[in-house]
Amino acid sequence: MSADYISNRGSKPHAGKTKRHGSWLAKYLLVHKLAMNNGFERFLKGRLGSVMTVFVIGFALTLPAALQVVVKNAEQFAPIMESSTQITLFIEKDVSLQDVTTLAKEIKLREEVSETSFISPDEALKEFQRDTEIGDALNHLSDNPLPPVILVTVDSQFLGKDNINRILQELSMLPLVKIAQADLHWLERLLGIINLIKQAALLMTIFLIIAVIMVVGNTIRLMSQSYKDEIEISKLVGATDGFVRRPFIYSGMFYGFFGGIISIIFTVFSTSYLQSHVANLAELYASSFMLHGLSFIDSVTLIITGTLLGFGGSWIAVSRYLHELNL
Fold first, then answer.
1. Domain map of the chain by residue range?
2. Residue 20 zone, left/alpha/beta (φ > 0; ψ -120 to 50; rest)
3. pLDDT exceeding 70 applies to what percent of the chain?
4. Predicted local distance difference test score (pLDDT) of residue 13
5. What CATH fold (topology level) applies to the domain 86-183?
6. pLDDT tens digits, residue range 264-283?
7. Rounded CA gap, 105 and 162, in Å?
8. 62: CB partners within 8 A, 6+ apart
9. Is 204 helix (H, G, I), strand (E, B) or coil?
10. Torsion angle defined by CA atoms of residues 71, 77, 82 and 86, in that order, rounded to the nearest 10 degrees
């Protein structure tokens, strides 16, 4: 330990209640400042070892951060796809077009509906012939077998599986409506995939948190062993475990802090690299989708997480080492 940090143990507060309070606070801040400086010096002395440890922590934190980016971008598809959710109403075939038009207008007046569109049997036949290879076969039929159809677009305020099912049930009970259907299986599959990614990210985060704590703990334990003589001298002159532990904890926090910064750099680089490729793919599907990376809050959270993990790993390692020394 530095001589300034050790010698600071011998300072005493001034007399007087106000001065005692002020000197205690000043001493407390000074002790932590010296401990932080001492811890940073020890961090720098590691050189290549410190750099490798920081990069290992950075890689470990990058994996859950990357999965978080994947989840955030995947969740963009849900509202986009939900917004295109339509309910298809197949009308009884023998109903007049005027009655179907009137029904479509009545449905549009519902608060859950933002738009309705009517497709006549003739229009449906033309569309079927255009989009399928067997459409010409329908020309040989005496009657058009396709029924009138009303497409109902649900208002964005009522999107969601439960609301869609409720609206679907109500519309199916209307007179003239033979079949009401809405394909929600694709949305359920999408949400299921997103939930699976979330659970995988959570599980991986837990494993990597343990890994980071072990990496920092092992590094700080090796560091504390190299300072065994200084630790023993400090204990002989009356230093508490907290006083001895403090510089090592700051060293661990520096490992986590810089590891968090490295993970941000890796994640930003990966996102930037994939941005153009994602944009080209989205253009092929006539989509304006853009890949979003870490937000400012995500970046700050990543640095704080790394620092806290460094604190936890170093505190555990030094506390166990001091317990083994039994001084």
1. 35-77+189-325, 86-183
2. alpha
3. 81
4. 45
5. Alpha-Beta Plaits (3.30.70)
6. 999 999 988 888 888 887 77
7. 24
8. 262, 263, 266, 267, 270
9. helix
10. -150
